[in-house]
Each structure stands twice: as structure tokens, then as C-alpha cells.
Design brief:
Elements lengths: L28 H17 L7 E3 L9 E6 L2 E13 L3 E6 L10 E6 L1 E8 L4 E8 H14 L5
Antiparallel strand pairs: 1-2, 2-3, 3-6, 4-5, 6-7
Amino acid sequence: MIKSIITVETKKGTHILSKKCKEIQETKLDKIKEIIKDLMDTANSCKNPRAIGLAASQIGYPVRVFIIRWGSDWLALVNPKVVSRSEATRPYVETCLSRPGMAGIKTKRHKIIVLEYFDVIRKQMITRKFSSLDAVVVQHEMDHLEGVLV
């Protein structure tokens, strides 16, 4: 289901954007799949700007789940944890669906980041290395899970 994205301009629900999200029990597979479907439906409905990532907290679920664009599809990361990150960083200018109309924010992101997360398709923990734009998006979405809004 397409959900409204909570923005800094929205009065209702904005507190969720500044709160650290809770882990979701991996045994609650039906609920996780519902959240992921809502994330994908909502992200697919974003045309200008086009979504390349979306955290569950941005649509009202205060849990540690987010999606990133993965080729022509979406990759869902449930309860992600940082395993490692490169010392090397790069500057990046980011925008955020929860800050519509705002100019890009200058950030500094690690060039490579390794995450461990639950994969709902394989029903197991996965460790994956992200680099380039994927690394930037993953770090942006991880910030959302920590209650940090870029």
C-alpha cells in the first residue's frame, strides 16, 4: 500500500524521524513482508524526485527496515548492522524524501560499508559489501534508523 512519507513539514508523526528504531523480530515474517511491500509501493510512487532508498520510519513504522534500489528492483534490509567500513571517505551532496524541496546537504560518507542483515527471501542473515552510490544510500538509510535526519 502506498503510504504518505513523513516530512519535516508534516506535523503528525514527525517525532518518529528523530527516534532510534527498534529491531523487529525475524519470526514476524508476515509483518516484515507487509512493511517491505509498503516501502516498495511508496518508493515506486515517488517520481520527482525518484526514490533510491526509503526507511520504514519515513512511512510510520519505527522498526529497523529499509530498502534501496538494487538494479531495476529493490533490496530489503531487515535489522541491519554495520560490520565494517572503510577509513576512506568521500564528500557527497544528499537529498531526502523527508525534507522535500530542500537543497542538497553536504555529507561525508565512507566509500565502502559492510552490513549484516536479515534477508526475508532467503530467511537468513546475509553479509554484503556496498560501495559507490549504494554505500552512500545505505549509510543515509542507516541514519534514518538511528533517528538522524540528513
